[in-house]
Amino acid sequence: MATNADSSDEVLMLGYRNGDAGAFDELYRRHKGGLYRYLLRQCGNAAAAAEMFQDIWMNLIRARLNYEATAKFTTYLYRLAHNRLVDHYRKSAHERPLPFDDEQIDEPAVVHHELPEVRYERKQLAARLLALLEALPETQREAFVLQQESGLSVEEIAAVTGVTRETAKSRLRYALAKLRSGMTEWR
Known about the structure:
With 187 residues, the chain is mainly alpha-helical. The protein has eight helices and no strands.
């Protein structure tokens, strides 16, 4: 079965399971950015995020022959990532470093003809949002990042994190409320 860029993630993964290496390349292209950002925002350490990122893709490669499309591929991929983060926290047994430094987060491209005060205000706004995100409890931050960075639904977030739909919805609601509350001065 030949796969292409228009194929769903699930079709691509089934194609990869059946020997189509190009299907893996497309899956990797689609999900590498979101997956890395999720790991980085959760662990706060670029080196650890990069190591986990590689482990997750290697786990996916090893598990390909047993893959069945019983859920969305993104749910499957982020469940692997969630489990790898849990292992990381157990192994490291230390708190996440706070906060992210500017080098670790990809900053949106700045328009060069923008006024300096507009650039400054945008940078301040981004720094405030990142600080608020860092201050969220881990479970709320994870729900928010899975929704915003990975585009997962509440049901998919519940499946990834191993909680009920209502718990995932609650975590997301509390995270959004705290972020909104912290950004009131910028409205």
